[in-house]
Specification:
Number of strands: 5
Structural class: alpha+beta
Largest sheet: 3 strands, antiparallel
Strand content: 25-35%
CATH topology: HU Protein, Chain A
CATH superfamily: IHF-like DNA-binding proteins
Order of helices and strands: HHEEEEEH
Radius of gyration: 19 Å
Shape: elongated
Distance between the termini: 19 Å
């Protein structure tokens, strides 16, 4: 599902809301999650999962084409851990 499909489903489920309002709500939620992660904090949505940031140190990698050593810079990457309710729902199939 892409963001526009999510917005369309929410609009269909809530006919009393305008599409532009639902779109603004979804964008605000995503922006808040992004901003919180950018600050290095954790976002937990009970029953769904938790978003956090993992830090990867710099390392020496290899160019797969030439085999030459390449320095890979340190970076932060987003990490998602599913919540118990989501895991159970996925495994009840």
């Amino acid at each position: 599902m892409i963001k526009s499909e999510l917005i369309a489903k929410l609009v269909d489920a809530n006919p009393h809301l305008y599409q532009r309002d639902v779109e603004r709500i979804v964008n605000t939620i995503f922006e808040e999650i992004t901003n919180t992660l950018a600050e290095g904090n954790r976002v937990e949505l009970r029953g769904f999962g938790a978003f956090s940031v993992k830090h990867r140190p710099s390392r020496t990698g290899r160019n797969p084409r030439t085999g030459q050593a390449v320095e890979v810079l340190a970076k932060s990457v987003p990490y998602f851990k599913t919540g118990k309710d989501l895991r159970e729902k996925l495994n009840d199939k």
